[in-house]
Amino acid sequence: MLTHSGLQPHHKELTMSSRISPTLKAISLAVVLSFGTLAHAADPVTDIMQAANAPYRMALYKTNGKSQEEAQQALVQAQQAWNKLSTQVGAKPAAPYDRDPAFVASVAEVSKVYDQALLEVSAGQLGTAHNTLERVRDVMADMRQRNHVVVFSDHMNAYHSQMEVIMIHGNETLAQPKGMLLLTAQAGALSYLARQLEVQASAELSKNAEFAGLLKAVNQSVSNLEAALLNQDMATIKEAMGKLKGPYSKLFAKFG
Q1: Distance in angstroms (rounded) separating the CA atoms of residues 3 and 19
Q2: Which of 17, 159, 227, 252 has its CB 3.0 to 4.6 Å from that of 256, i.e. a possible disulfide?
Q3: Domains of the chain
């Protein structure tokens, strides 16, 4: 999910012990991805899903803004792209998704999410629609993972999951005994996942100057947090946590 002021509320109810698991989950996924034990995307269904992912990212980005008209336009385009996928492969997908018994249900679930989000945008509830749309990211990621497919978006998602842990729970973590040490460990995990974005980027992405610039900004935001933690500067730490969102959001909107 794009981290923003309307973050999903259920994260706030996590205990300290349960907050560790998203970190471990993100790192575990990144390690699996980095070792290449899953097959990289090279199939027509994933290609169509990735094509549908581009307008989805824009819809997510626009619902994080203030323009109802722009959000609605972006959302309609995202829904149309997904309807194309549903029409072309929704009932009878090609390999490797052809052996996935949950594929049809997943496609239908995304369609329902778009329907709900459109109703919310029409009612002027952009923040609610943004949170609703987060489910699309999760469903697509689950579809790929079930079928042993990896795309760059999966590495973006792994980074995002850890970024959320810090942004949502950072202040609470700092208030715990040895909280600064705990947050330092979480920042280290985020730093690793940020490096994976560079390592796992395709040759085409790596040569893209805009991608390089946006990724540099993401890495700098993490470095700023790590430096603040090393200096044990509480005010600067909190400021750095608040500045993780912007660079990631820009990278996600264009290349996520």
Answers
A1: 17
A2: 252
A3: 11-38+151-255 (1.20.120), 42-150 (1.20.120.10)
**H helix intervals, 102-178:** 103-122, 126-146, 152-174
40, containing H or E segment? strand 39-40
Q: Is the pTM of this model over 0.85?
A: no
**Residues for the chain: how many in total?**
256
Write out pLDDT tens, residues 237-251: 999 999 999 999 999
Give the integer Cα–Cα distance in Å for 120 and 101: 31
In DSSP notation, 25-36 reads HHHHHHHHHHTT
* H or E element at residue 38: none
Residue 110, both tokens: 């995304």
Residue the block writes with tokens 């979480």: 186
Contact 243, 190 (CB under 8 A): no
Instruction: Report how far apart, in Å, the C-alpha atoms of 30 and of each of 37, 173, 206, 222 are.
Output: 11, 23, 19, 17
What is the band of 91 on the pLDDT scale with cuts at 50, 70, 90? confident
Q: How many CB atoms lie within 10 A of CB 37?
A: 10
The DSSP 8-state label assigned to residue 43 in this structure reads S
Q: Are 199 and 152 in contact (CB under 8 A)?
A: no
Burial 24-36 (b: 16+ CB within 10 A, else e): eebbebbeebbee
